[in-house]
Design brief:
The complex is a heterodimer of chains A (321) and B (142).
Chain A (H helix, E strand, L loop, with lengths): L1 H18 L5 E7 L6 E6 L29 E5 L1 H12 L8 E5 L8 H8 L6 E7 L2 E6 L2 E6 H4 L2 H4 L11 E2 L10 H4 L1 H8 L2 H13 L6 H4 L25 H14 L9 H5 L7 H15 L27
Parallel strand pairs in A: 1-3, 3-4, 4-8
Antiparallel strand pairs in A: 1-2, 5-6, 6-7
Chain B lengths: L10 E6 L3 H10 L8 E6 L7 H9 L4 E6 L10 H19 L6 E5 L5 H18 L10
Helix pairs in contact in B: 1-4
Classes of the chains: A alpha/beta (321), B alpha/beta (142).
Chain lengths: 321, 142
């Protein structure tokens, strides 16, 4: 098992880092309280490093904790998380010297919701889920069934361009290559783009009528690091506190524009949304717009200026009179 | 789209105080005619305009928003209009994707000596807004 080997190396590495006092904290993943799930582990203790895990369920983007944890940090990252870190370095939110990045080449993560939907069974009824190359093997009632990995991976893993971390101190395991099928992962956006503007607006109106404004999307987002969010301002009050669809939509539209050029489309907002709002259809499109207009990809170059503070003297202005 | 009788488009203009706002002043002094549909807010620089202002104006019922600043290279603060340009490009494209008509979000470069251009821009934008009709985007459950 590839993962087991990486896991052993990771535990060893994390332990050494703490023993040699090269870091104050380790941020990684441990097994969660629900079956298959993992949960973030933030620890100072060498003994806890034995609880670190690497498996196809390490979904959280841990870079969100970096702006909160003080001191030197050893952090476990996947391809997408490493880009969030680079983006935070670009914005001077964290210092590269204060980090020891342990990179894990990520072949894509398994979406338990998709597995449940595919099998029509609750996750508690499943015995085991393992990844084997481009297949996922699921054990139910002692019987094995195979599925193509693309059917159960997260949507954002299907459009992942950089599964190997872009920035790391140690890389645990061999670099990997994109697993998914970019066109399949973008089906939703293509569908939306074919609609008339009014239909699209209706679609979003519908989506945001469900929003309960729990702000999970904002709180889980590594690019959303404002000390005070505009939604919490009372003078002027940009957004009313009651979750009306108009204000929900305004909030999300502005959130997306504010994180333009920093959002790496890691998909955390959509994953944590309790109302299953199709947020990645927004973040992905913003990612594409930024790429198309300014040939810019978030979190690729830690020495580059952040997108919205940089400029070229001649740039797109066909829309300006 | 049903239009109420006597409906007039409401346009909100964010004008840079170093150029476009002075341009509007000049338009007045030179007795240039332009529609009274624009309400002007003076901003220190077009770079001051947060996309939040734009969508909030639409949410409050304005039919369109115009952001006007200095020509590239002429910014009083060196780079404000360059930043505004990037931001506006992204905002416009993104809001179009969400379903907001592109005519509702407008931008222009108008220098302090171009009273005539400002009058022209406001006239054109107002005409476009008249064509697409009232802003119903955020209607219902006000």
């Amino acid at each position: 098992m590839e993962n087991k080997k990486i896991e052993q190396k990771l535990r060893q590495e994390a332990k050494t880092l703490l023993q040699q006092r090269r870091v104050d904290y380790i941020i990684g993943y441990e097994m969660g309280s629900l079956k298959f799930t993992t949960t973030p582990l933030i620890t100072k203790s060498e003994n806890d490093t034995d609880r670190l895990v690497v498996n196809p369920f390490i979904v959280n983007n841990l870079s969100v904790y970096l702006t909160e944890v003080k001191g030197k940090v050893g952090i476990v990252v996947k391809g997408c998380d490493s880009r969030s870190i680079v983006s935070l370095i670009q914005d001077n939110k964290i210092a590269r010297e204060a980090l020891v990045i342990m990179g894990i080449p990520c072949p894509g993560l398994i979406d338990l919701k998709k597995v449940e939907l595919l099998l029509g069974k609750d996750r508690d009824e499943l015995d085991n889920i393992t990844r084997d190359g481009d297949k996922v093997v699921i054990m139910v009632d002692g019987k094995e069934s195979n599925f193509p990995a693309t059917e159960v991976l997260f949507d954002n893993c299907l459009v992942c361009e950089f599964p190997t971390p872009q920035e790391y101190d140690v890389l645990l395991g061999e670099p990997t290559f994109p697993v998914g099928d970019i066109t399949a992962g973008q089906a939703k956006i293509r569908q939306l783009k074919e609609m008339a503007p009014q239909q699209r607006w209706e679609f979003w109106k519908n989506e945001f009528s469900r929003c309960i404004r729990c702000y999970a999307c904002r709180n889980v987002c590594p690019a959303c690091f404002c000390q005070k969010c505009f939604v919490e301002e009372s003078e002027p009050q940009w957004v009313l506190p009651t979750p009306k669809w108009q204000d929900n939509l305004l909030f999300q539209a502005i959130r997306n524009i504010h994180v333009a050029g920093r959002c790496t489309d890691c998909g955390e907002c959509e994953r944590v949304c309790p109302m299953n709002i199709s947020l990645r259809s927004l973040t992905r499109e913003m990612y594409e717009i930024v790429g198309e207009l300014f040939q810019y990809k978030a979190g690729m170059d830690k020495n580059a200026l952040p997108l919205l503070t940089a400029y070229e003297s001649t740039e797109v202005e066909d829309f300006i009179r | 789209m049903e239009q109420e009788v006597g409906w007039e488009p409401k346009l909100l203009g964010f004008l840079c105080r170093w150029c476009s706002y002075a341009g509007a002043d000049l338009a007045g002094i030179s007795r240039k005619k332009y529609p009274a549909n624009i309400k002007i807010i003076k901003v220190p620089c077009s770079g001051r305009v947060d996309p939040l202002f734009i969508i909030k104006a639409l949410r409050l019922g304005f039919d369109g928003v115009l952001v006007s600043g200095c020509y590239p290279g002429d910014c009083h603060y060196q780079t404000g209009n360059y930043c505004a340009r990037r931001r506006m490009a992204i905002t416009k494209k993104f809001l179009e994707y969400m379903g907001i008509e592109s005519q509702r979000i407008q931008a222009s470069w108008v220098s302090a000596s171009e009273g005539g251009k400002l009058a022209e821009v406001v006239t054109e934008v107002t005409k476009e807004l008249r064509e697409i009709g009232p802003n119903q985007l955020f209607a219902d459950g006000k």
